[in-house]
TrEMBL record:
Belongs to the class-II pyridoxal-phosphate-dependent aminotransferase family. It comes from Aegilops tauschii subsp. strangulata (Goatgrass). One of its GO terms (molecular function) is pyridoxal phosphate binding. The keyword Hydrolase does not apply. Residues 2-292 form the Aminotransferase class I/classII large domain. Keywords: Endoplasmic reticulum, Lipid metabolism, Pyridoxal phosphate, Sphingolipid metabolism, Transferase. Transmembrane segments: none annotated. This is serine C-palmitoyltransferase. GO terms for cellular component: endoplasmic reticulum membrane; serine palmitoyltransferase complex.
Length: 321
């Protein structure tokens, strides 16, 4: 899956004498891949191109530890949509910094490919970045494509190198034919190559669903992280004792939620992560909002004041049903 893709590919791309500059909130698969590579790892502040530039300038000026020789290779690793924050990457600014300092770029699109952009091509399309400028684009088939496995998109030379050097490709079992066909069929639907407009409808629906759900949660007084158009929206719980309370009470009312706690997040930054789907109807979303609102009142996780006139939209929608 995506975890194996990152943790197995990164050590093949770079090794001793190389420098990895990683976003501070990158996924654990990227962290483990960077640690296993033998390269020097430096971290820049989350989604902060100015700090990335400071780190690159300092590291290029100093060179390798002890010898101060020039770095053999520098790779900057970021995510398209950050899985625990729901935020879009500041990709245009980060790409400009990487070009300026001649660093390679590695983009993890696990949560963005097939979900954002006019035709579902991910954050590059959404933010107006030429995919050809990104050296390595990684993604998983387990989210938008509903299958298993992961992929790497890069130049012919990089792919040739990975095919002959990556243990995960050489020794692991191949994807089964039904799983591969599921991915191919899903891609055809997203691109409109199936002869219908289902893909375009689904992309419009997931964007509409995401923005509706996010805005309603915020109006109810929840602290919701992330950007508009992102289908990933964490609701902050903070207190570790509220994690099982929120999850179990929602489940008791027939709404299943995913809670995230330490070590996936810092100890006191627990959250519930909502991932919106294009297949969810407005009725589904309203039912979920009603339950989450009731449970939020019950366990006390509405950290912002509720403005009654703002939440009236949910009540109006209920009456219209």
């Amino acid at each position: 899956m995506g975890y194996v893709t990152n943790s197995a590919i990164i050590p093949i791309l770079i090794g001793k004498g190389g420098l990895i500059v990683s976003d501070s909130l990158n996924h654990i698969s990227i962290v483990n891949g960077a640690r296993g590579s033998g390269a020097t790892v430096r971290v820049f502040q989350h989604n902060n191109p100015a700090h990335l530039e400071d780190v690159l300038r300092e590291q290029i000026a100093g060179g390798q530890p002890r010898t101060h020789r020039p770095w053999k290779k520098i790779i900057v690793i970021v995510e398209g949509i950050y899985s625990m924050e729901g935020e879009l990457c500041n990709l245009p600014e980060i790409m400009a910094v990487c070009k300026k300092y001649k660093a390679y770029t590695y983009l993890d699109e696990a949560h963005s490919i097939g979900a954002v952009g006019k035709t579902g091509r991910g954050v590059c399309e959404l933010l107006g970045v030429d995919p050809a400028d990104v050296d390595i684009m990684m993604g998983t088939f387990t989210k938008s494509f509903g299958s298993c496995g992961g992929y790497i998109a890069a130049s012919k030379e990089i792919i040739h190198h990975l095919k002959h050097a990556c243990p995960a490709h050489i020794y692991a079992t191949s994807m089964s034919p039904p799983a591969v066909q599921q991915v191919i069929s899903a891609i055809k639907v997203v691109l409109g190559e199936d002869g219908s407009n289902r893909g375009a409808k689904k992309l419009a629906q997931i964007r509409e669903n995401s923005n509706f759900f996010r805005s309603e949660l915020q109006k109810m007084g929840f602290e919701v992280l992330g950007d508009n158009d992102s289908p990933v929206m964490p609701i902050m719980l903070y207190n570790p004792a509220k994690i099982p309370a929120f999850s179990r009470e929602c489940l008791r009312q027939n709404v299943a939620v995913v809670t995230v706690a330490f070590p996936a997040t810092p100890l006191l930054l627990a959250r519930a992560r909502i991932c919106i789907s294009a297949s969810q109807s407005r009725e589904d979303l309203i039912k979920g909002l009603e339950v989450i609102s009731k449970v939020g009142d019950l366990i006390g996780i509405k950290y912002f004041p509720v403005e009654q006139e703002k939440v009236a939209s949910v009540d109006k929608l209920k009456k219209l049903e």
